[in-house]
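Q: What structure does this chain adopt?
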Amino acid sequence: MVIDHNSPNQEDQKSRLYETVAIGKVSSIEMISNLTGLNEKYIQEAIEELVSEGTLEGSFTADGKRFFLSDVKTSSAPIADTQDTGLEIRKTDTKNAKLVGITGVIMLVVGQILRSLISIHPGMDNAGTSIFMLGLVILIVGWYQYSRLEPPSNIR
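A:
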């Protein structure tokens, strides 16, 4: 499509170009060309004319592929922190799991002591065995709790 600069349609094209750039906030010359159906070279010339007239304020990039407005308003959103704090390694609380495990070990020891007291009373063997087995179950529960806490490893 050949555009004659003296045609009466030129002002309509400039107003369409102004709406696309200033109101639509489109900066890519290629995208403006696709939206308006105009030649990229004509778009650059027309934008330069609009800048020289004072209708638009902005500048082209070094390669001429984009036109950025100079009166772009910044967002009122809070500025995100750009400093990277790195990995956060939180310390897990393993006190309860260790307490359950230690309780299981103590029950194992008490159960073994009660089993050795069979000479005092024959029922001590059954009581000692039951406390020993219960202590073994509690020890396994403590190990399981500790393994599920995923304590932090040394990251290098």
